[in-house]
Amino acid sequence: METLGIVSCAACWGVSAYVAVGGGVARHADGWVTRSVYLRVRRACALVGTTPAVAMLLRLASWQNMADSLARALGRRGLYAGREESCALVVLVAMTVSMLVGLSARSALGIVVCLLGAVVGVEIWHSSRVRARERALIDEMPQVFRTLAMALGSGETLTQAIEYVGVHERGYAGEAFVHVALRLRCGASTEDAMAQLSRELDAPGVGLLVTALAIAQRTGSPLRSLFQSSARLVERQGEYERLLAVKTAQVRLSVRIVCLLPLVLVCLLSLISVDYQNGLSTPAGVMSLLVAAGMDGCALIVIRRLMKGVI
User: How many other C-beta atoms are found inside a 10 Å radius of the C-beta of residue 3?
Assistant: First the structure.
């Protein structure tokens, strides 16, 4: 019976996610999703978005990234929500699912487990997005250096070369160069624009790129050969990092198993096993869980020290 309840809660969660971001349903607000329901949901999100809990969550970089990504996804479907409203939508969905799981499992522990799972899930998603962005920048930077070398070698000014990179390059690097070009056109100094570029792009060779562009602006020195050599070096560094990732894949998998498997088992048993729930409600059960969490943390620390920061 509990398993059936969990499956039904998962189905409700999926339906809620589909209503929020899928299928263009909310854009037209027709069919079974009426306009009044959409307005009420948005009003509730706006109300929850002004609470101190949402403000506290948005202080975290992971929740800011999640809220901005959800706002962009909703905007592509005709729903324009701010950062606070998007964060409030996630909070409301997590609370609803947690209540449903708690009722189906007949335990308040299920509510706590689901809420903690939502928080951990956002952190894991943010970490994966950060790693994906770093890998994308490593792949993009060699072409950025070559494009700058070609533009500067053609006799273009620094502003024109930066605009050329922003127009012809895609991804995170191209977006950052578009921002720099706009700042330069709006009257910002070269030093301020380059400093902002170094903050937006955390990738190999960015420090050299910013320094070289600042020197070129002041002295007019040619940088084509320098950028071409830098492109080859950055490309070689990316190859070494990919090779290192392959060599350490087994260790990183072990770290994920050590960290996630006990947590997943505790969450599942807390939801589907009545005996486990009764055990956790006792002081001995809570102490055993804390000891296990401490041992899991010690294992993670030992693995990280053995790998000396590789993972």
Answer: 10
Task: List the helix and strand counts (H, then E) for the chain.
Answer: 15, 0
**Nearest-5° angle of CA 11, CA 58, CA 166?**
95
* pLDDT (mean) for 132-148: 82
Q: Which pairs count as long-range contacts for 38-42, CB under 8 Å and 24+ apart, including other chains? A: 41/89, 42/81, 42/85
Give the range of the structural domain holding residue 293, as residue numbers without chain letter: 248-307
Q: Which amino acid is at 15?
A: V
CA atoms within 13 A on the CB side of 155: 0
pLDDT digits (tens, 9 = 90+) for 160-198: 877 888 878 777 888 888 888 888 888 777 777 777 877
**What's CA 137's distance to the chain center, in Å?**
15
Residues 155 and 190 grouped into a single domain: yes
